UniProtKB/TrEMBL annotation:
Pfam families: 2-Hacid_dh, 2-Hacid_dh_C
CC terms in the record's Gene Ontology section: cytosol
Organism taxonomic ancestry: Bacteria, Pseudomonadati, Pseudomonadota, Betaproteobacteria, Burkholderiales
Example GO molecular function: hydroxypyruvate reductase [NAD(P)H] activity
Family named by the database record: Belongs to the D-isomer specific 2-hydroxyacid dehydrogenase family.
Keyword Endoplasmic reticulum listed: no
Protein name per UniProt: Hydroxyacid dehydrogenase
D-isomer specific 2-hydroxyacid dehydrogenase catalytic domain sequence ranges: 13-312
CDD domains: HPPR (cd12156)
Keywords, in A-Z order: NAD, NADP, Oxidoreductase
Organism whose genome encodes this protein: Bordetella genomosp. 9
Coiled-coil segments: none
Domain D-isomer specific 2-hydroxyacid dehydrogenase NAD-binding residues, every copy: 107-281
Amino acid sequence: MAELLMMGPLLPALVARMKARYRVHHWWEVADKAAFLADRGAAIRGIVTSGRFGATREVIESLPALEAIVSFGVGYDPIDMEAARAHGVVVTNTPGVLDECVADTALALMLAVSRRVCELDRFVRAGRWRGESPALGRKLGGRRCGILGLGNIGWQIARRAEAFGMDIAYHNRRPRQDLPLHYRYCEDVTALARASDVLVLSLPGGAGTRRLVDARVIEALGPDGILINVSRGSVVDEDALVCALREGRLAGAGLDVFENEPEVPAALQGMDQVVLLPHVGSSTVETRQAMADLFMANLDGWFETRRPLTPVA
Ligand code: 8YV
């Protein structure tokens, strides 16, 4: 039985599947990590983790027999890829199977913010309907949807936003040649924000995109603009976002991800024009099952045939 180090608690059903075939150690529960590594470190051949727990250089370098890092989720920004490459460790993720659900979450947030769904739900529950008129929402149709990061998830967001009658613009490092001609390419992030009423973030996290959405981008989105983030909290300057929302320089935000999850700035929690979700972009029964299946196919693929299904390029 190959030995694996699990960095944080993964889905119980997935852990049960792993434990039927591997000996799995729970890293987060190990009190004396040095003693554990001295005892089991040389036997561990795989790290199992997620886009949340990742794998640090320190852990990678403390496992001399490490062959593979198998991750649950498409984003692998908290995995030290440089260390993995340097040590010849293969890294896998779960792309493709969650695009539709993450896009659905983006649309749910767009609708919730622009039509004030959560705010009006609170209005009804507080018994305010009898004495007051509910606030007006804004229509999505006819407004401009800017997508920062038009990859597989961004494409699903674009299709859905189009179905709501929105005009689509996007920014990637390079324009894509395979998109409908009426999708407008913007040369940089600020230009995209200026060309958007709703700016949706669906790009990878990591050093290359850290705080890409800063005070200047938020300013360009403007006082009628809405920011939607289903990618990583690290992409947004959270202080600048809070400041703009507080001062009415941005109309609203729908956020599934945050800089220091599960911490969410108290200022955001007090704002009616903001909808907050606990990083559930891909969290449906169907998609979690598909992610778990792909995760296991990668894990078994590596340890049985050295051929994982979806290694990170
Ligand atoms: C997961 C995600 O919830 O796929 C990703 O990158 O952020 C989510 O689908 C996460 O990886 C699990 O912690």
